[in-house]
Amino acid sequence: MYKTMIFNLNGAEYIELIKLLKLLHIAESGGHAKIMVEEGEVILNGEVEYRKRAKLRPGDLVVTSGKEISIAL
User: Which of 8, 21, 29, 35 is 20 to 30 A from 51 in CA distance terms?
Assistant: First the structure.
C-alpha cells in the first residue's frame, strides 16, 4: 500500500521531477534524485520515467519509494 500525497503547484505550470523528489524529501539531494530516476525507481503515470527534468503537471501521478504523489493545481 502506498502513502498518498498531494502536491499543489500553487498556480505554477509545472514542476520538474527531480525538484519534486528533493522538495518532498523523498531524495536526500538533487544528486540522489537524479540517481533514483536514472535507476528506474520512479513511475510516472504508470510507466518508468527516465527523464530527470520531466515536467509534472496537474493530473500526473508519481510513484516512488512507497509513496504515491498526485499533482494538483
Answer: 8
DSSP string spanning the chain?
A: -PEEEEEE-TT-S-EEHHHHHHHTTSSSSHHHHHHHHHTT--EETTEE---TTPEE-TT-EEEETTEEEEEE-
Q: Where are the domains of the chain?
A: 3-72
Predicted confidence (pLDDT) per residue in 8-61, tens digit: 999 999 999 999 999 999 999 999 999 999 999 999 999 999 999 999 999 999
pTM listed for this prediction: 0.93
| Fold topology of 3-72 | 3.10.290
Q: Cell numbers 527531480 correspond to what residue?
A: 18
Beta-strand pair 15-16/61-64: unpaired
